[in-house]
Amino acid sequence: MNNPKQQKPTLTGQRFKTRKRDEKEKFEPTQFQDSIIQGLNENGSDLEAVAKFLDASGAKLDYRRYAETLFDILVAGGMLAPGGTLADNVSRTDVCVFAAQENLETIRAYAQVFNKLIRRYKYLERGFEEEIKKLLLFLKGFTESERTKLAMLTGILLGNGTLSSSILSSLFNENLVKEGVSAGFAVKLFKSWISEKDINAVAGGLRKFNMDNRLLELFPANKQSYDHFVKYFTDAGLKELADFVRNQQSLGARKELQKELQDQMARGDPLKEIITYAKEEMKKNSISEQTMISIVWSCVMGAVEWNKKEELLTEQAIKHLKQYSPLLAAFTTQGQSELTLLLKIQEYCYDNIQFMKAFQKIVVLFYKADVLSE
Fold first, then answer.
1. Residue of 165, 175, 227 lying closest to 197 (CA atoms)
2. Angle separating helix axes 239-267 and 199-208, nearest 10 degrees
3. pTM, to two decimals
4. Alpha-carbon distance 1 to 3, whole Å?
5. CB of 196 within 8 A of CB of 152?
6. CA-CA distances (angstroms) from residue 116 to 71, 109, 153, 177, 193?
C-alpha cells in the first residue's frame, strides 16, 4: 500500500517588531532642520544643554542622512546654499558658531559641542571633515568675522584631533588663493592650532597628510617662494611656523643635493665639477660646511659596493677614500668640520663592524692627504 505523499514543510517567515528606541523618525531636510533649530533655540546659550539635546536627538533623528544639514546649522545657523549664503525661506538660529562671540574661549566651548557629538556618533566623523572642506571652499561667501570664527574652530579641532590636516586641501583652491583669502584664513587657523598644542604637534599633524610640503600653495604661483612665505607668516606673528617651513626647505634641499652628488659620483664626473656644484648649493641653501661634510662622507661611502671579505676591505676602503680625498678636503677648511668628519668616520666604523680594523688607516690617510690637520 502506497503511503500518501507527504507535503514538504515551507518557511512562512517571521516578522520582528523594531524596538521603539531603534526607530528613526522620517523627516525631509526642512523638517529635520526645524527639529534641530527648535531644540537649539529652546536650550539657548547653555552649550552643555545643547550638547545633551544633540546627544539625545541622535536616537530619533537621522543624523547619518542629514549630517550636512546638521553641521550647516551648528556652524552657520541654517542650511547653506551653494556659495555659502543661508538658503532662502528656511528657519535660522543664533545658537551657532557664526553668531557666537569672536574669542577663543567661546569658540572652544562650541568645539566641545562638536567633540561630544562626534564621540557619541562616530559615523559623523567623515561627514564632518567633508563639511569643513565645503565650508572652506565657501570662505568668500562669509563675512570677515565669520571667517575668523571658522578659522578658530578649525584650529582648535585640528589641535584636539577631531579634524585631520587633510581638510587644508580646500585652501589651495585657485580662486581663494588668487584673492588672498587662503593665506589670511591660514594665519588665523594656525594661531588657533598652535595655541592648543605647539609647533611640534602642528608639524606632526601636517606631515601625516603630506600637507607640510604644500603650504606654499596658499599663495599664487608668482609668490610661491620660501622667502615670501617666511616673511608673510613672520610678519603675521607666526615665526614658529615660518621657521618650520624654512627647515622643511633646508631638509628638501639637502635630500636633492645628496641625490645629485650620488648621481655625479656614479657617472664618474670630475671631482672639480662635483666640488663646484656642492659649493654653489651650500651658498644657495645656506648649508653649513659641517652639514656638507656629513653629506659628502655619506655619498662617498655609499658610492661603492664593499668587499665582504674583511681582509680585502681595508685595502679597498683606503684606495676608494684616497680617490675622493680632494672632495672631502674641500669641505674641511674649518676645525669644526674636521671634528664632524672624524665623528662620522667613527660612527660609520662602529655601525659597520667590518670597518673597525680600517679606522686607524683611514684617519692616517686623511692626515696625509690634508683632509684633516694636526
1. 165
2. 50
3. 0.74
4. 6
5. no
6. 14, 11, 14, 33, 19
Angle 90-91-92 (CA atoms, 0-180°, nearest 5)?
Answer: 115
E strand residue ranges, the chain: none
* Cα–Cα dist 371/145, whole Å: 62
Burial call 21-59: b when 16+ CB within 10 Å, e when fewer: eeeeeebeeeebbebbbebbeebeeebeebbebbeebbe
- For residues 273 and 330, is the Cβ–Cβ distance under 8 A? no
Place of cell 635630500: 255
Report residue 319 as a C-alpha cell: 684606495
**C-alpha cell of 177?**
588663493
pLDDT digits (tens, 9 = 90+) for 261-278: 999 999 999 999 999 999
Q: Using the 8-state DSSP alphabet, how is residue 5 labeled?
A: P
Query: DSSP assignment, residue 123?
Result: T
Is residue 97 within 8 A of residue 150, CB to CB? The reply is yes
What CA–CA distance (Å, rounded) separates 330 from 36?
72
Cell numbers for 210, please give them.
603630506
b/e per residue 75-90 (b: at least 16 CB within 10 A): bbbbbbeeebeebeeb
For the beta carbon of residue 319, count every other beta carbon within 10 angstroms: 11
pLDDT digit string, tens, across residues 263-320: 999 999 999 999 999 999 999 888 899 999 999 999 999 999 999 888 899 999 999 9
Q: What secondary structure, in 3-state letters, does 166-190 show?
A: HHHHHHHCHHHHHCCHHHHHHHHHH
Chain-centre distance of CA 303, in angstroms?
A: 34
Residue 270 and residue 301: Cα distance in Å, rounded? 17
Distance CA 24, CA 277 (A): 69
Other residues' Cβ atoms within 10 Å of the Cβ of residue 148: 18
Please state, in angstroms and rounded to a whole number, the distance separating the CA atoms of residues 77 and 261.
Answer: 58
**Cβ–Cβ < 8 Å for 212, 247:** no
- With contact defined as beta carbons under 8 Å apart, do 139 and 185 qualify? yes
Q: What is the mean pLDDT of the chain?
A: 91
Count CB atoms within 10 A of the CB of residue 121. 19
Distance, in Å, from the CA atom of 197 to the CA atom of 18, rounded to the nearest integer, reads 46
In the block, residue with C-alpha cell 565657501:
138
